[in-house]
Amino acid sequence: MLSFVDVARRLAAASRAAGLVAPVFRTPPRRPGVPRSIRRLPGGPVVSVRVKARPFDDVVVDMVEGILVANRLAGDGALRVRTALLDAAYRERPPARVA
To answer: Which residues in 61-99 are b (16+ Cβ under 10 Å) and which e?
Structure first.
């Protein structure tokens, strides 16, 4: 089962691998009543996503959309990156090796 932290790490790594800015993810947003917010700070963007009382797939989509907004992507480029990020978020990972 995936957690917010697992997905945040996967999406940050996939963003960096694609040459994009990887935002910091946090929960919940500071602004009440919004499912997602983005703040542009001097150290980099912060994407805040509400997790409680929402389907986890919606949370993941909001995290991906936050990356697209943070990197000002639109059109075909956004579609390609969105597909790659969603794949990275849900891809099966091999079990860790124990020495």
So the answer is: bbbbbbbbbbbebeeeebeebbeebbebbeeeeeeeeee
